[in-house]
């Protein structure tokens, strides 16, 4: 068997592409042993198999081609160990990020599954909550475009990516507007925080305590009747509103195309 392989054969044997091998030749990390002067065909030998395997292995680990080239040129064991340690640290950071995203997805799945089990909509209940960590942007919001712009601003200011807050967005209505029956204007937008390491001046908490709560079918535009039910219940029981309300749409048109599935929760902090 002739120890000479065309670029196509080399690519097929190593599950890579001709384009990749040409690029490796151009940047000098894997040059063919022979180039036919008549037709420009590139040829490789079995002695280069291990070199290509090393390149592909390091690339799969996440090393840049510049780092790989540096290693191949110097082949220093200490330098190689430093590269591996660096990549291990980067991998551990990625694992932590993915674990955070995974917890978010698990919580959103839990939210939606629990929401689908709710049978009594429009019924007021009194619930006790522990303090909940949020990032909150205080801003007047009275339309859908304002809501989207404010959410994007909050995302940027808190350095959170979209996957972090899927399903964790809420709005608040000020206590003054609640007491004046003005429910179509919000004074802030927030994102529930489920990690301890988020650093932002916008980090705060939703206070622990008792809340009058209600679920209803619809989105923020359909909240009027639910607010009235909440306030009537609070008044009838002799409770006192002591803070801004919290609204969070759990199922909306981005999750379901059926309006019958839409679900929003309102919570009003109270003093019994």
Task: Summarize the structure in words.
With 272 residues, this protein is an alpha+beta fold. It has two domains: 5-75, Orthogonal Bundle (Multidrug-efflux Transporter Regulator, Chain: A, Domain 2), CATH 1.10.1660.10; 117-271, Regulatory factor, effector binding domain (Multidrug-efflux Transporter 1 Regulator Bmrr, Chain A). 42% of the residues lie in helices and 24% in strands. The chain has eight helices and twelve strands. Strand 2 (34-35) and strand 3 (42-44) form a beta hairpin. Helix 1 crosses helix 2 (18-27). The N and C termini lie far apart (90 Å).
Topology at a glance:
Blueprint: E1 5-6, H1 7-13, H2 18-27, E2 34-35, E3 42-44, H3 49-61, H4 65-74, H5 77-117, E4 125-129, E5 132-141, H6 144-157, E6 169-173, H7 175-179, E7 186-192, E8 203-206, E9 209-216, H8 224-236, E10 240-241, E11 245-251, E12 263-271
Antiparallel strand pairs: 1-3, 2-3, 4-9, 5-7, 5-8, 6-7, 6-11, 9-12, 10-12, 11-12
Helix pairs in contact: 1-2
Key structural traits:
2 domains, 12 strands, single chain, 8 helices, Multidrug-efflux Transporter Regulator, Chain: A, Domain 2, 272 residues, Multidrug-efflux Transporter 1 Regulator Bmrr, Chain A, three-stranded antiparallel beta sheet
How many domains? The number is 2
Gyration radius (Cα, Å) is: 29 Å
Give the DSSP E fraction (strand runs of 2 or more residues): 15-25%
Structural class estimated from helices and strands? alpha+beta
Mean pLDDT: 87
What would you call the shape? elongated
H-E order: EHHEEHHHEEHEHEEEHEEE
User: What kind of sheet is the major sheet?
Assistant: 9 strands, antiparallel
Strand segment count: 12
- The termini sit apart by 90 Å
CATH H-level homologous superfamily name of the largest domain? Regulatory factor, effector binding domain
Q: With helices defined by DSSP (H or I, 4 residues minimum), what is the helix count?
A: 8
CATH class of the largest domain: Alpha Beta
CATH architecture of the largest domain: Alpha-Beta Barrel
Assembly type of the shown chains? single chain
Q: Percent helix among the residues?
A: 40-55%
Low-confidence stretches: none
For this structure, the CATH topology of the largest domain is Multidrug-efflux Transporter 1 Regulator Bmrr, Chain A
């Amino acid at each position: 068997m002739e120890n000479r392989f065309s670029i196509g054969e080399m690519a097929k044997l190593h599950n890579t592409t001709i384009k990749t091998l040409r690029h490796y030749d151009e940047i000098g990390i894997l040059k063919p042993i022979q180039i036919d002067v008549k037709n420009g065909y590139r040829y490789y030998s079995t002695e280069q198999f291990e070199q290509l395997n090393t390149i592909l292995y390091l690339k799969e680990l996440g090393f840049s081609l510049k780092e790989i080239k540096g290693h191949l040129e110097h082949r220093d064991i200490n330098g190689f160990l430093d590269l591996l340690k660096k990549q291990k640290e980067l991998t551990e950071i990625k694992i932590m990020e993915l674990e955070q995203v995974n917890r978010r997805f698990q919580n959103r799945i839990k939210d939606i599954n629990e929401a689908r089990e709710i049978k009594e909509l429009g019924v007021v209940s009194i619930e006790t909550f522990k303090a909940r960590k949020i990032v909150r942007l205080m801003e007047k919001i009275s339309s859908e475009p304002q809501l989207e712009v404010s959410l994007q601003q909050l995302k940027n200011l808190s350095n959170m990516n979209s996957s972090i807050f899927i399903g964790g967005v809420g709005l608040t209505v000020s206590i003054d507007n609640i007491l004046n029956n003005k429910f179509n204007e919000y004074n802030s937008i927030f994102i529930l925080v489920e990690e301890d390491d988020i650093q932002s001046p916008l980090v705060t908490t939703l206070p622990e305590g008792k809340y009058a709560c209600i679920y209803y079918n619809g989105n923020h535009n359909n909240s009027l009747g639910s607010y009235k039910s909440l306030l009537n219940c609070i008044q009838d029981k002799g409770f006192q509103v002591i803070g801004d309300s919290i609204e969070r749409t759990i199922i909306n048109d981005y999750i379901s195309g059926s309006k019958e599935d839409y679900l929003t929760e309102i919570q009003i902090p109270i003093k019994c």
